[in-house]
Amino acid sequence: MLGRGLSCVFAVALGLALGLSVTGAETLTERALRLMAETPLIDGHNDLPWQMRKQFNNQLNLVDLKVLEGTHTNIPKIKKGRLAAQFWAAYVPCETQYKDAVRQTLEQIDVIHRMCSKYPDNFMFATSSEDIMTAFNQSKTASLIGVEGGHSIDSSLGTLRTMYQLGVRYLTLTHSCNTPWADNWLVDTGSDPMEHNGLSPFGKSLIKEMNRIGMLIDLAHVSEAVMNQVLDISTAPVIFSHSSAYAVCAHKRNVPDSVLRRVQEKQGIVMVNFYNDYVTCSKTANISDVADHFDHIKKVAGSSIIGFGGDYDGVTRVPEGLEDVSKYPALVEELLRRGWMDSEVKDALGRNLLRVFKKVEEVRDGLKSELPGDTPIPLDEVKNPCRTDYGYPTPTDNAGPRLAHTPSALVLSLLLLTALLAKSV
Ligand SMILES: *[C@@H]1O[C@H](CO)[C@@H](O)[C@H](O)[C@H]1NC(C)=O
Ligand SMILES: *[C@@H]1O[C@H](CO)[C@@H](O)[C@H](O)[C@H]1NC(C)=O
Ligand SMILES: [Zn+2]
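Above: the input record for the complex with 2-acetamido-2-deoxy-beta-D-glucopyranose. Below: its predicted structure, written as tokens.
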């Protein structure tokens, strides 16, 4: 009897224990997916639009993103990866600077718009922090535009504003070349000459204008001097859309600890890049190497400045375990394995970017009464064979406005005409 009673109690206890482990203990995979269902994953940089140009010359009609192979990004991978919002890069190479950079950038903006129209069930074009939540509620990927490289605006505030009108919400100040108003990261490696010691006066006026219109300022790709000057000037928080931690991998594309701390003071965000070369400073990397960057940034400046900036389809080497956009949940799981709390993971997933974006929108709204910046870049800073100088005073005009010049030109023409007439008669 006793034996039977004991075994009965034992069976009940065992049953309880089993029941608990089935219903109570969430696996790390389940926990990662739950967090990603509660908070949108927002990625700062993806170059699928560049793949559209490179592989298809932007003929989207020839592409089906539901089955496209050979890229890091397609619709099934996006779904599997729970990618809730993406800043798609409107990127054109530095070789276009002083040539057709503006046209090519417009075409990249256009291809992103067309991608959203072609797949309305999967993508929602988005231009605000609220749009990101609306898309998330509808289980669509909020699709935002970031222009990667100041060469894309050809030193023109009017072009910057027009691109904002077209839906662009961040501008990376440089790609891997100097612009007439900002130095890029290659200056810090010594392979590009330092031209502005950071930003030129026009570059500084551009920062003010970006604050005024509500364009996020992206410091990926710029020199450290530019990072610090923008952190001095900007009244809104800044982003690094795809950069990792310099202390973990000493590559000049990464962010030094001193800047991480300043980003924290400004309540900005550093969205971690997965490119092997920036993750381990070598050709190979794995998911745990990427998590090391997350851990380091958290240790130095807290989880409130961290985000995801995979750089998918813009790089040739990605880590083992993060082969394409379907793998984000594995990285979230790795952070949980390392003891990240739910709230820290949610911050990194999307809450940090949403906070930054909202603040940028608030700063914009607070500057509504400011006049648009309209002082053009000085002509001698942008002289090149493909740029005309309409609007700038011509050298002989220095004495006064154009009208004052007209009478003498008129007199000269009359004299010439008289001479011609005299001859013909
Ligand atoms: C999204 O859905 C949640 C819960 O249903 C709701 O509280 C929130 O207002 C919605 N947000 C937007 C922007 O639609
Ligand atoms: C990742 O690579 C490092 C070496 O960089 C190695 O120590 C570690 O075990 C690897 N981790 C995984 C999960 O493969
Ligand atoms: Zn880049």
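Notes for the reader.
Confidence is low (pLDDT under 50) at residues 1-6, 8-21, 400-407.
The beta strands are 41-46, 83-91, 123-125, 141-148, 168-172, 216-218, 239-240, 269-272, 306-308.
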